[in-house]
């Protein structure tokens, strides 16, 4: 079953772009985009989610750390669902 995000907060507009939130089951999630890599993690708290970050997507030639909210949702398709 794909985890469902009940909250999503962009915590940084600078590099790296970063989002945090809670899942329906109470766990935390974190996504960070920097140097052309999107990393994603889930944990029982923010620290645990950060420790569980794994690169899930690398963008060739994209070495900045900016990503739109829409691009994040597209990139996490199949890994996380969101409230619309």
Overview of the molecule:
- It is a single chain.
- This protein has 84 residues and is an alpha+beta fold.
- It has one domain (4-82).
- The chain has helices at 46-51, 69-75; strands at 4-5, 9-12, 17-22, 28-34, 37-43, 54-58, 81-82.
- A 5-stranded antiparallel β-sheet has the order 2-3-4-5-6. The protein has a two-stranded parallel ribbon with strand order 1-7.
- The longest helix is centred in the C-terminal third of the chain and has 7 residues, at 69-75.
- The mean pLDDT is 91.
Topology, pairings included?
Layout: E1 4-5, E2 9-12, E3 17-22, E4 28-34, E5 37-43, H1 46-51, E6 54-58, H2 69-75, E7 81-82
Parallel strand pairs: 1-7
Antiparallel strand pairs: 2-3, 3-4, 4-5, 5-6
Give a short overview.
The protein has helices at 46-51, 69-75; strands at residues 4-5, 9-12, 17-22, 28-34, 37-43, 54-58, 81-82.
């Amino acid at each position: 079953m794909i985890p469902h995000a009940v909250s999503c907060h962009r915590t940084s507009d600078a590099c790296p772009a970063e989002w945090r939130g809670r899942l329906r089951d109470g766990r935390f999630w974190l996504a960070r985009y920097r140097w052309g890599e999107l990393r994603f993690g889930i944990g029982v708290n923010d620290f645990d989610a950060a420790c569980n970050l794994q690169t899930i997507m690398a963008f060739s030639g994209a070495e900045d750390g900016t990503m739109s909210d829409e691009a994040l949702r597209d990139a996490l398709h199949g890994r996380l669902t969101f409230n619309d």
